[in-house]
Amino acid sequence: MPRSRNKVASRARRKKVLDRAKGNFGRRKNVWTVAVNTVEKGYSHAYTGRKLKKREFRALWIQRINAATRANGMSYSVFMNKLKAANITLDRKALAEIAYSDAAAFTAIVDKVK
User: Fold this and answer.
1) Is residue 50 part of a domain?
2) pTM
């Protein structure tokens, strides 16, 4: 009895990888062996990028808070310490949004903490 190879599933697997390799240049988009490497490397970059995005946004929030606190005559580290001591539980994302969009409200927060 001959071995069954399930051509339909094999073709679907290859088609899925080649669809994901679309947009690449040259053989990277239409040669199976090259496209597989391209797609796998793209997945690893995407995984790393999802981790880096979190770091970069936190750094951006800290920069925005630091700029706003220095405009109000205080440093970032002192502000965050006094914020914790005053029992104000706003996270960096919310503080950065307030500092960016509503300077008067952020000034009120800084005055309350002083």
Assistant:
1) yes
2) 0.80
